Amino acid sequence: MSSIPKELERKKLNETLFTKAFQVASYFIYEIRELRRRLIGSRCTLVSYSPKLS
Fold first, then answer.
1. How far is the CA of 24 from the CAs of 9, 11, 35, 46, in angstroms?
2. pLDDT tens, position by position, for the chain (54 residues)?
3. Which of 1, 2, 16, 28 reaches 20 to 30 Å from 46, CA-CA?
4. What is the structure's pLDDT at 53?
5. 40's torsion region: left (phi>0), alpha (psi -120 to 50) or beta?
């Protein structure tokens, strides 16, 4: 048996794992941005609707 198929198999596995890791990281970055956007939006909403104290 030649070592070339094993190397190609390992390379393909590494590429797949890297791709999946990148997808997971991108998803979490998106979720964090959405949470920040919602928090900032809710702060603006709370501030804009709060009654003025005299």
1. 23, 20, 17, 33
2. 556 789 989 999 999 999 999 999 999 999 999 998 888 777 665 555 555 555
3. 28
4. 57
5. alpha
Q: In the numeric block, which tokens belong to residue 7?
A: 């190397």
pTM of the entire predicted model: 0.58
- Cα torsion 44, 47, 48, 54 to 10°: value is -160
CA atoms of 24 and 17, how far apart (whole Å): 11
CA-to-CA separations, 4 to 7, 16, 38, in angstroms, rounded: 5, 18, 51
Q: What's the CA gap between 54 and 47, in Å, rounded?
A: 16
pLDDT of residue 39: 84
